[in-house]
Amino acid sequence: MSGTVVMKFGGTSVADAQRIRRAAQRIVAKREEGHRVVAVLSARGKTTDELIRAAQEISDSPDPREMDMLLSTGERQSCALCAMAINDLGHRAISLTGSQAGIVTDTSHTKARILEVRADRIHDGLDADAIVLVAGFQGVSTARDVTTLGRGGSDTTAVALAAAVDAELCEIYTDVAGVFTADPRMVPDARKLSTVSFEEMLEMSASGAGVLQLRAVEYARNHGVRIHCRSSFEDGAGTFVLTEEETMERPLVTAVTHSTDEARVTLTGLPDRPGIAGRVMTALAKANVNVDMIIQNEPQSEGQRADMSFTVPRDDIRGAHDALDPLVEELGIGAIASDPAMGKVSLVGAGMRSHPGVAAKAFSVLGAAGVNIEMISTSPIKISCVVREADVARAVRELHTAFELGADAVRREDVQGVHRPVVSS
Ligand code: ASP
Ligand code: MG
């Protein structure tokens, strides 16, 4: 008997009856290979969006607790239907809500964090030879209320369960073939990566790659869960997310990611004294506004005032203004302005850590393409530039070409033949 595998199917992979049957067949095939199988399902197609819309039609400010009662139903539907399909294939399946599966979270409704997984009910199911289906994206809070884990949260459910049942692999079945060097819809010759390290994947998820929820990658890294991101519509390997030691290759640049929903907020005429930046950021944090890049310009001479700019998700502009307006008078801020039409392009690659010159090349490429860089931030393995939203697609394509990430570029690791990770699928 081989080990346990967690299989997660995204919304498009269970969108209609035929696709649910196809997912059921994949699950059953895995079981017939001799694995114990836990499957995590997302809500079908656009169900979560539709449920959010339904709530907004009823109320301008839906109660977060009730929102979670509502949103958690989408995943339950998928699981019950898939269990029926599996039973029809002659196997035994049992579907569980997140709460029944023992996923305990904190009490922050609509964006709860998993605190603990009490997996005994899952173990009981597996021991009884059943395939266990778990509704993704949800849990039960320490106050015994149903919670949800934020958009894309089924990825985190899958990874948390993989850690809890000590699975040999967490397979994420999705509508793309894996993790790419850039968004294939934007860059036609983007290449599927065979492996990517947890650290790179963290930076990629944080900077706009939509394949895996950021928290899922964090959880996987912290608990050593191996992820295989693959297509639910075709066979063949996708992308393995592994430790840096296991990925073997350390390309200078692994991928170009982007986002087109950034906004910039600029505060001018800030008093130049200790504690001001802390006050500004505290007000934003209290309002749950997620600040990304921050730039502060120190005054040139004594007694002058400072300027500060930062980026937030476009949806949070209103929240940022509401949080900061009361500070204008209190701190004596000159003005608060915002620009909603910003985007971001990022280069991610573990090889940057030890090779200088990536930033120089990236900025030169953008300059030659006539793309103005408005803000810059870096980590040891990432360089991000805020640019106008309208420039994002061009910036991504130019960088992808300049760093030879495309399918046609000859790559060192192809030549050396060290492409395969040491993982069985
Ligand atoms: N159904 C939820 C969403 O659309 C969770 C998920 O699919 O991961 O965000
Ligand atoms: Mg998803």
Give the C-alpha Rg.
Answer: 23 Å
User: For the residues shown, what is the average pLDDT?
Assistant: 93
Count of folded domains:
2
Low-confidence stretches: 412-425
Kindly report how far apart the N and C termini lie: 15 Å
Give me the side-by-side strand order of the main sheet: 3-6-2-1-9-11-12-10
Looking at this structure, what is the CATH superfamily of the largest domain? Acetylglutamate kinase-like
Structure summary, number of beta strands: 18
Q: Could you give the topology of this structure?
A:
Elements lengths: L3 E6 L7 H16 L3 E6 L5 H12 L5 H25 L4 E4 L6 E3 L8 E4 L2 H8 L3 E5 L2 E4 L4 E3 L5 H11 L4 E6 L20 E3 H9 L7 H10 L3 E5 L7 E4 L1 H4 L7 E16 L5 H11 L7 E4 L8 E8 L3 H16 L2 E14 L9 H11 L6 E5 L2 E7 L3 H11 L9 H5 L9
Parallel strand pairs: 1-2, 1-9, 2-6, 3-6, 4-7, 9-11, 10-12
Antiparallel strand pairs: 4-5, 7-8, 11-12, 13-15, 13-16, 14-15, 16-18, 17-18
The structure holds aspartic acid and magnesium ion (MG).
Give an overview in words.
This protein is an alpha/beta fold and 425 residues long. The chain has 2 domains: 4-175, 3-Layer(aba) Sandwich (Carbamate kinase); 257-402, VC0802-like, CATH 3.30.2130.10. The protein is built from 13 helices and 18 strands. It has helices at residues 17-32, 47-58, 64-88, 120-127, 154-164, 198-206, 214-223, 244-247, 276-286, 317-332, 358-368, 392-402, 412-416, and strands at 4-9, 36-41, 93-96, 103-105, 114-117, 131-135, 138-141, 146-148, 169-174, 195-197, 227-231, 239-242, 255-270, 294-297, 306-313, 335-348, 375-379, 382-388. The protein has an 8-stranded mixed beta sheet, sandwiched between helices. A hairpin with an 8-residue loop joins strand 14 (294-297) and strand 15. Helix 2 (47-58) packs antiparallel against helix 3, helix 6 packs antiparallel against helix 7 (214-223) and helix 9 (276-286) runs antiparallel to helix 10 (317-332). The protein is globular. The site of magnesium ion (MG) has 3 residues, from loops.
